[in-house]
Structures are given as C-alpha cells and as structure tokens.
Amino acid sequence: MKVKNNILIIGGTGFIGYYLAKKCIKKGWEVTSISTKKPNPLRRISKVKYVLCDITKKRILEKKIKKYFKYVVNLGGYVDHSHKSKTFKSHYFGCKNLTKIFLKNFPKTFVQMGSSVEYGNTKSPQKENAKCYPKTVYGKAKLSSSKYLVNLFKKEKFPSVTLRLYLAYGPRQDFNRFLPIIIDGCLKNKKFPCSSGNQLRDFVHVNDVVNAILKSLINKEALGQIINIGTGKPKKIKNIIMYIRSFLKGGQPQFGKIKFRKDEILKIYPDIKKAKKLLKWKPLISFESGIKSTIKSYNE
User: Fold this and answer.
1) What is the domain-level CATH number for residue 242?
2) Most CB within 10 Å of its CB: which of 20, 128, 187, 188?
3) In angstroms, rounded to a whole number, what is the distance separating the alpha carbons of residues 177 and 168?
4) Selection from 118, 113, 147 nearest residue 133 by Cα
5) Per-residue pLDDT tens for 231-282?
6) Per residue in 54-75, is it b (16+ CB within 10 Å) or e — as a string?
C-alpha cells in the first residue's frame, strides 16, 4: 500500500499556514499543524490534525513530534514583534529546536520561511547574495536562522530551503496587517491615520506564496539555498490606499499623521531571478486581481 505524502506545518493556524494546509489536503496529503493557539474558526480545516505546542520548548516539542514527516514547513514564530526576547527565541531557537529533532530522521525537505527584513537597508532590488544589515530583532532572528540552515546543509546535508518572503496578502488575513487595516477603514468610511505613503513595497498574493512553498518541497536544486519570494514590482503605499478608497467609495486616510521611523526604508522590493530560474516559479496573480478578491472577502 502506498503511503500518503504527509506534511508538518509549524504555524498551520496562521494566514499562510491555513492556505498551505488547505492546498495540501486538496492534494490528498496528511496534514499536521503545530502552533501555540487553536485555529480561528474561519481558518479551521476539519481534516487537519492540530497540535498545541511552543517550539521554543524542545523537550515538549520532541514528545509532540513522534512520527516521520516527509515534508516540514516552518511558518512559526511570535507575531507581536514588540516583545523582543520572545520574538528572537521563537524565530531563531524555535528553528534550531526543530532541526535538531529532524536531524535524527531527515525529512525530504525542510522549508524555512524567512523575511525581506533580513536585508535591512540593503538597496533594492534586493538580491540573495547581498550583505544583510537587519535593523530589528525579528530581522536579526530570521537572518540568524537563514545562516544557521545554510551552514547545516553544508555540514550535515540537512535538506533545508529558506524562502525570503516579502509582503503576503489575501482573503482572511488578520486585521493587524496593512491591507486589512486600510480595507476596514474604507469599508466603515472612517478616518484613519497613515504615513505620507511615499514608500514602495512589494505585495505577493498568498496563493503565489503557497505555490512557491510547494515547488520548493520537490526541488533538489533548491536545497541549501535562500530564495526571494515577491513580485519584483513594488507599489506605492499611497496609490494602494487611494485605489482601495476609490473601489469602496469610502474612507478618510489622514496622510502624514504617522511619521516615518528614523530607520524607515522607502524602497523595499526583491530581485526574483533566482526563484524563476531555480524553482521555475513566478507570481501569477496580478495585484489588481488579488486586491479585488481580498476586498470582496472582507466586504462579505
């Protein structure tokens, strides 16, 4: 009897985790999620096995991970980055704890979700081989994880791939993110503070992100690599806000009410040539199409 493909998603109750789990279930895979909280009712999937565990607690984690997993995707980590100690521990030591457990029995692929903030003020378009100067604890934790996994591949041939993600968006994203905040403000036709909006940012649809993860899982050439995942086509924040306002015919953005941080970087977007060449991946959902479906989901 042929054994089903199975996957462990750390952070399977989160935004990207939900879409990845949904796609894997559709493919007939067995899906297990590890997270510190139960899934939001809107993001609960009946066929997923949900396990509650903190990945910073290695002994407990070892007890929770008993079976063999063919694929592992680490989307875990503390979301509230204002708590610096928890942020660093969950994103760096959480990653290390997972790999130490799986060193005993390698999965076929271990995908680590990195972040564009690892680059810090590196000039855009940002390339994977550039020197990184992260400004935040979150960025430093993610960069430490990326370096650790690259070294682990070199020393132990641990089958890791790090995807350096830009700004993911789509339906059912939590309301503490940029686009949901703007959509909510415009839907309710209320005043909301924002910056001058002159920043350039790169937004990639969650379905394209999931597609990149799935391609990474089955690509031997990607092992040991760091790969940017974005569109390479940045959008001006002010233009996005005005587009949503026009589409919903409401909302009163207060431009300039929020001042730029001292370390604010105005242009952040990736070079995605490596993803195109190595993964044979490119974003398929245009921002116009993606933002319309996102707005529609919140409107409903």
Assistant:
1) 3.90.25.10
2) 20
3) 10
4) 118
5) 999 999 999 999 999 999 999 999 999 999 877 889 999 999 999 999 999 9
6) bbbebeebeebbeeebbbbbbb
Which tokens sit at 160? 């890791």
Q: How many domains does the chain have?
A: 2
What integer pLDDT is reported at residue 2 of this predicted model? Answer: 55
User: For the segment 139-168, what is each residue's pLDDT rounded down to a tens digit?
Assistant: 999 999 999 999 999 999 999 999 999 999
How far apart, in whole angstroms, are the C-alpha atoms of residue 245 and residue 239?
10
Residues 216 and 289 grouped into a single domain: no
- In this structure, the answer to whether residues 109 and 197 fall within a common structural domain is no
275 in a structural domain: no
| DSSP-assigned letter for residue 130 | S
Q: How far apart are CA 185 and CA 165, in angstroms?
A: 26
Residue 81: band (very low, low, confident or very high) from pLDDT cuts 50, 70, 90: confident
Helix axes 15-26, 206-217, angle to 10 degrees: 60
- Please tell me whether residues 51 and 138 are part of one structural domain: yes
49 and 95 fall within a common domain: yes
For 183, counting Cβ atoms within 10 Å of its Cβ (0-12 exposed, 13-18 middle, 19+ buried), the class is buried
**Same domain, yes or no: 133 and 208:** yes
